[in-house]
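USER: If only I could read backbone structure tokens as easily as an amino acid sequence. It would mean a lot if you studied the pair and described how this chain folds. Here is the record:
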Amino acid sequence: MSAVYENRASDFFCRGDNNYKAKLRCSPHLHYHIEFVQLLEGETVGLADTEETLIEPGDIFIAFPNQVHSFVTKNPEKYRLFIVSPDLMPEFLPIFTSRVPSSALIKGAGLDPEINALTKTLFTFTGHHHTGGDLYSDSVIRGCLLALFGKLLPLMSLSAPRTGDSRAVREVVGYCSEHFAEELSLEVLESELHLSKYYISHLFSGKLGIRFNDYINSLRISHACRLLRREDMQITEIAEAVGFSTLRTFNRAFAKFRGMTPSEFRRDGATRTDGASLLPIYRPISSASKD
């Protein structure tokens, strides 16, 4: 099964129900971002790894990075949905990358006046401000996110991932997310994570539906998009910084994932603010959410 990629250009994305027209439902997927929803009206079933739970008005549902999750609409919903790179909150990054919640559901958290005010501020602020690099608007977003998760994380029971394929996927994807700019291979992962390279290859092809090399290149291109918004680096410098050995291989990979050249993205694509930065969403096979 082939992978589905997000074509988005920033580290923060939010959307609402558009007067009940945009349903929350989506098939099982995972990505590097934190995805959380505050339900205002209606009912939705949320799944995180193997836990399925009913989300009701006032509840907040949070999927951590690299945690398989999905939503099934039960009846018309009103909601605020946020997709956030954990890199925006380095203060909490060790938590997001090494822990998972025992339950993705925080019952009634959205009814807390302070939490509701923060989600509302994030939602309304990004609807009226450009969020693709403006120093002040980006600072407001980061400040609200820090305050919001400072309130939410103490309400959650967090632990290390369980053993089995789900934990292995998180370990492998987490390591790749930290070391994508280095020389990476199945042999390197085998040595560093003490997992068979054949098992790791199976995780990518069988569980995530993507080839290992394509996954690594998608991470590199994602970071390249961030660097291309800056004016202080040449494209050749960016190619090297994200892990490509030659400009030719960088250009080829960039065209594959973005449908344009790095120069075209710097000129036109970098101004887009249609959501989270380019990172793959994997649609696992039916067993992907089970150990």
Observations:
- Residues 1-9, 273-291 have pLDDT under 50 and may be disordered.
- The CA atoms of residues 204 and 227 lie 27 Å apart.
- Residues 4-159 form a domain with the Jelly Rolls fold (CATH 2.60.120.280).
